[in-house]
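[#protein-structures] MJ: dropping AraC family transcriptional regulator here for a structure pass
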Amino acid sequence: MRANVRYWLLPGLSPVEMLAADYFNQRFSAHWHLGYAVGVVTRGAQRFRADGLAWSAGPGDVVTLNPGQVHDGEALTPGGWSVRMAYFPGPALAALLGVGEPGAFGCPVARQPALASAFLDWHDAMETEHDPVRALAATRAFAALLRPSLLPGTKAGAAEAALQAERQRLVGLADVGAAAVSALAEPRALSRFTVWRQCKSGLGIAPKPLMTHLRLIAVKRLLVEGHPVADAALACGFHDQSHLTRQFASAYGITPAQFRRVAGGAAVPAGPG
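AK: finished. structure tokens for AraC family transcriptional regulator:
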């Protein structure tokens, strides 16, 4: 059954990507976000791997992911799952929380009924609410309950600090581009297996999907600038538009055409996925 996805942007200097989706047969390939992801499962259950560990999330569970945190995803229950997500660029999340630096989420899945309820109220208000007073109240309630979930960088343990450093490497690679990844072996003439092992152990993703996702990030930037999907596909190394569409949907759960209709002309968003 085909996924039912609603996708929109909250305007601002750092637009927040919003998604409400019913997934049935969706399987997300390994990928990461440039910003923070926050969501709540509302139906069914999903499973995914993040930082090399297996996680599952069912109705009412809060899902949180940090920038550069590699993960995948698929249905855990036969009927798939429904989820509401928000993808925050770092500055947007900092503004929401009223902090200088957001820090990092400690656990990808948490059972926090009050936070889940506040998030869903806020998410609904950002989609349908025309009363600015109610929207502001929902935003404040959500921010107050989300803030304790983030661990300031200065208080992170050694293991978490190391993970954050690797995630930032992935975020930084998005600015370098996919071509640089293919040259990783050149300075010391490393074997392909050695490069694969170093990517997999250090970044949590093998070179081929790493390069694919870097190309997808480049595609998103071209689509935001208003380039046609077919042109963006060829410019970023995809065989054709259909090849790009398959890879894009596998990583983000929406098609490049859907993304372009909403995000064209906006600043480069941080998600989804």
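MJ: nice. The CA atoms of residues 14 and 91 lie 7 Å apart.
AK: one more thing. The first helix runs from residue 90 to 97.
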